[in-house]
C-alpha cells in the first residue's frame, strides 16, 4: 500500500481532489479515480487534479475525470491552484501561470481569504474552427446549427473550444430541463470524435444567464468554469456583444468578461479550501 497526501478544494461547488506531485510520484489515476471520486464509498469529488513542475509556468496542471479519462482544462480547478499557491506564499505579487495541455493560463488573486479567495484567470480565446474543437461534419463555425438527437428531438447548438470541446444549447427552462438525458446523448454523439462537454443555458437578461453543464466523463456538476466561458462566448457571438455577464450555476456565480487587450475571456470567482487528507492505493 502507498499513501498519498491530498487536499480538497472547490470552485463554486465544482470540487476536486488535488495532489501536489512536484516532488514525488503521483498515483495510478485510472486505478484510483472511480474509487476516490465516489461520493458514497470514497473521498468524493468531480475529479482528480495533479500539480506538477513546469519549465514554462509556475506549475503544470493535469486533470482527470471521475471515469479516469484525462480532461484538458478546468477554470474552477485553475482558480483553486492559484489559491493553493498563494496560501503557501509561493506568489510574490499574487499573479501566477499554469501550464495545461492546450495553453499557458495566466491568473491573479483578486481578494485573499483564509478559506475562500477570489481569483481571476484568463481562459484564452474561444476557438470556433470545427477541426480544432473537434467537431465533425462542418467546415465553418457551428453557430446555432440544427442538432438532431432523434426523430422527435432537435436543438439549435453551437460548438466552441475553451481548451476543451463544448456544445452549447439555449433552452427556455433550464431548471427543469432533462440535462442527464440529453447531456449524455450529446456527449457521446458521433459528431464529437473526442466526446464533448454540453452546456444548457437560459438567458435572464443582458447581464445574467443560468447555466447547467454536463461534463465529459463526469456527468452534471455543480459548476463548470470552461463551460461558463463557452456559454458566454456563444452568447456574445450570437448577439455581437462584449458586455460582461454573470453566469449562475448550481454551485454559485462566475463573472465573465473580455480582456481589453486581446478579447480573451477573463473568469472571476471563488476558490475554497475544504480539507487535507491522505488516501492509499
Automatic annotation (TrEMBL):
It catalyses: (2S,6S)-2,6-diaminopimelate = meso-2,6-diaminopimelate. One of its GO terms (molecular function) is diaminopimelate epimerase activity. The keyword Amino-acid biosynthesis applies. It is found in: Cytoplasm. The keyword DNA repair does not apply. Its EC number is 5.1.1.7. Pathway: Amino-acid biosynthesis; L-lysine biosynthesis via DAP pathway; DL-2,6-diaminopimelate from LL-2,6-diaminopimelate: step 1/1. Keywords: Amino-acid biosynthesis, Cytoplasm, Isomerase, Lysine biosynthesis. GO terms for cellular component: cytosol. InterPro entries: DAP_epimerase_AS (IPR018510), DAP_epimerase_DapF (IPR001653). Pfam families: DAP_epimerase (PF01678). GO terms for biological process: lysine biosynthetic process via diaminopimelate. The record marks 166, 215 as: Could be important to modulate the pK values of the two catalytic cysteine residues. The active site is at residues 74, 224. Substrate binds at residues 14, 65, 75-76, 164, 197, 215-216, 225-226. Its main location: cytoplasm. Belongs to the diaminopimelate epimerase family. Catalyzes the stereoinversion of LL-2,6-diaminopimelate (L,L-DAP) to meso-diaminopimelate (meso-DAP), a precursor of L-lysine and an essential component of the bacterial peptidoglycan. HAMAP family: DAP_epimerase. NCBIfam families: DapF. Homodimer. This is Diaminopimelate epimerase. It comes from Candidatus Schekmanbacteria bacterium RBG_13_48_7.
Amino acid at each position: 500500500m502507498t499513501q498519498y497526501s491530498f487536499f480538497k478544494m472547490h470552485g463554486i461547488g465544482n470540487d476536486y481532489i488535488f495532489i501536489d506531485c512536484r516532488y514525488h510520484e503521483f498515483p495510478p489515476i485510472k486505478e484510483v479515480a472511480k474509487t476516490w471520486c465516489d461520493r458514497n464509498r470514497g473521498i468524493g469529488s468531480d475529479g482528480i487534479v495533479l500539480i506538477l513542475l513546469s519549465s514554462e509556468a509556475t506549475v503544470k496542471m493535469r486533470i482527470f475525470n471521475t471515469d479516469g479519462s484525462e480532461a484538458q482544462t478546468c477554470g474552477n480547478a485553475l482558480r483553486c491552484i492559484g489559491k493553493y499557491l498563494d496560501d503557501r506564499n509561493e506568489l510574490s505579487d499574487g499573479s501566477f501561470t499554469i501550464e495545461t495541455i492546450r495553453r499557458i493560463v495566466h491568473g491573479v488573486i483578486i481578494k485573499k481569504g483564509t478559506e475562500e479567495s477570489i481569483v481571476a484567470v484568463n481562459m484564452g480565446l474561444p476557438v470556433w474552427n470545427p477541426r480544432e474543437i473537434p467537431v465533425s461534419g462542418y467546415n465553418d463555425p457551428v453557430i446555432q446549427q440544427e442538432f438532431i438527437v432523434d426523430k422527435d428531438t432537435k436543438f439549435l447548438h453551437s460548438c466552441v473550444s475553451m481548451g476543451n470541446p463544448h456544445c452549447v444549447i439555449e433552452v427556455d427552462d433550464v431548471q427543469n430541463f432533462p440535462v442527464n438525458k440529453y447531456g449524455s446523448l450529446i456527449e457521446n454523439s458521433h459528431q464529437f470524435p473526442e466526446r464533448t462537454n454540453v452546456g444548457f443555458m437560459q438567458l435572464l437578461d443582458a447581464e445574467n444567464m443560468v447555466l447547467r453543464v454536463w461534463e465529459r466523463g463526469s456527468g452534471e456538476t455543480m459548476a463548470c468554469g470552461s463551460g461558463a466561458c463557452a456559454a458566454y462566448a456563444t452568447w456574445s457571438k450570437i448577439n455581437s456583444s462584449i458586455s460582461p455577464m454573470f453566469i449562475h450555476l448550481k454551485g454559485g456565480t462566475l463573472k465573465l468578461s473580455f480582456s481589453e487587450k486581446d478579447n480573451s475571456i477573463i473568469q472571476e470567482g471563488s476558490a475554497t479550501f475544504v480539507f487535507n487528507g491522505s488516501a492509499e492505493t
